[in-house]
């Protein structure tokens, strides 16, 4: 992998990741020629006294780009005809840059955009295994780099796919949030992990994986280094958790065998997701994200890196909305039994 770091006109960092597998070395020396003013980002972290969690108030985000026409896509490469985008070069493989409209900014974390391909009309599921591997390498590299920033506690690479999820740009891309605090879900997992250790003397992630493998009904895909299953108490209509078989706290600790097998496994899961609702349905909206251990939490060594992938679509043309019970109380009601969801995800396996 070759990494080239540059700066955009307003000072934001941009990094090209190239597989660099050809005889000609890739040169990335295009300069951002846009007359960009630095964005006045003002992000404030507020503490909720009742729940004990943190909310980022980011008022500058109201002005962000919203569903631009395809020929004005800010994530497509710039073209030699003079159309200038966020990416100065006229082509790229994988590129990462600081979000112009970050939710977290100004010494309170960092938000980055990850473009998976320069092909505007593709999706992650269309990528080759080699490209998916390059994306994984970029996630690993970003986790390492962001962990070095002052105040960053936790790194969350994720992808929102589909306008149903609130995606404002159609170009295939994901994001990385580097939080200056431990997120509520991770804090909850760390607490449960501790309690389980105290009660049983064992590791909760290991036990969950062993229980799912022994039961078998919710296993979606069992590879050599990864296991994908629908959790016993899935919150979402179709939800898959992907665990490496050898538990590690974060992407940095993932061994080469697991990294090498990941592209095939993950692409297969995404392709199955697009087939859940039948051949004539629009692409399945989904959220996919890496759960990693915070960098210096006490329970860090016990934490199990895993990916959670889920869709908010429950049946053709119908979405699961977070209504009263979920939004008001955080108590989920799921209409699709996890065993039925797993069965469906096995039925739509690639031949
Ligand atoms: Zn585009």
Automatic annotation (TrEMBL):
Pfam family membership, one: GalP_UDP_tr_C
Signal peptide start-end: none
GO cellular component terms, semicolon-separated: cytoplasm
Chain residues that bind Zn(2+): 73, 76, 120, 171
Catalytic residues as annotated in Swiss-Prot or TrEMBL: 173
Start and end residues of each Galactose-1-phosphate uridyl transferase N-terminal domain: 108-182
Pathway(s): Carbohydrate metabolism; galactose metabolism
Descriptive protein name: Galactose-1-phosphate uridylyltransferase
Keyword annotations of the record: Carbohydrate metabolism, Galactose metabolism, Iron, Metal-binding, Nucleotidyltransferase, Transferase, Zinc
Cofactor: Zn(2+)
Enzyme Commission identifier(s): 2.7.7.12
Family: Belongs to the galactose-1-phosphate uridylyltransferase type 1 family.
PANTHER family: GALACTOSE-1-PHOSPHATE URIDYLYLTRANSFERASE
InterPro entries, sorted: GalP_UDPtransf1, GalP_UDPtransf1_His-AS, GalP_Utransf_C, GalP_Utransf_N, HIT-like_sf
């Amino acid at each position: 992998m070759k990494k080239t770091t540059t700066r955009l006109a307003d000072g934001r960092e941009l990094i090209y990741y190239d597989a660099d597998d050809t005889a000609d070395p890739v040169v990335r020396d295009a300069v951002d020629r846009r007359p960009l003013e630095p964005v006045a980002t003002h992000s404030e972290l507020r503490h909720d006294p009742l729940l004990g969690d943190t909310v980022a108030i980011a008022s500058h985000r109201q002005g962000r780009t919203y569903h631009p026409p395809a020929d004005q896509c800010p994530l497509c490469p710039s073209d030699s005809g003079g159309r200038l985008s966020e990416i100065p070069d006229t082509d790229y493989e994988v590129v990462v840059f600081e979000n112009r409209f970050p939710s977290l900014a100004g010494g309170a974390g960092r938000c980055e955009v990850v473009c998976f391909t320069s092909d505007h009309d593709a999706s992650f599921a269309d990528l080759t295994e080699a490209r998916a591997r390059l994306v994984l390498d970029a996630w690993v590299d970003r986790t390492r780099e962001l962990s070095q920033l002052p105040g960053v506690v936790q790194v969350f690479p994720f992808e929102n796919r589909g306008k149903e999820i609130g995606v404002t740009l159609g170009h295939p891309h994901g994001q990385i949030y580097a939080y200056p605090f431990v997120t509520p879900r991770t804090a909850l997992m760390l607490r449960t992990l501790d309690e389980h250790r105290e009660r049983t003397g064992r590791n909760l992630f290991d036990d969950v994986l062993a229980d799912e493998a022994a039961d078998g009904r919710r296993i979606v895909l069992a590879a050599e280094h990864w296991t994908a299953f629908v959790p016993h108490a899935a919150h979402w209509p179709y939800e898959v958790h992907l665990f490496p078989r050898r538990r590690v706290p974060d992407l940095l600790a993932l061994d080469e065998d697991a990294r090498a097998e990941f592209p095939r496994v993950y692409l297969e899961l995404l392709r199955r997701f697009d087939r859940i609702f039948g051949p004539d349905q629009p692409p399945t909206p989904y959220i996919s994200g890496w759960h990693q251990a915070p960098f210096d939490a006490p329970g860090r060594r016990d934490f199990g890196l895993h990916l959670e992938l889920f869709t908010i679509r429950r049946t053709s043309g119908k979405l699961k909305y977070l209504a009263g019970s979920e939004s008001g109380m955080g108590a989920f009601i799921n209409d699709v039994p996890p065993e039925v969801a797993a069965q469906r995800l096995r039925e739509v396996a690639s031949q």
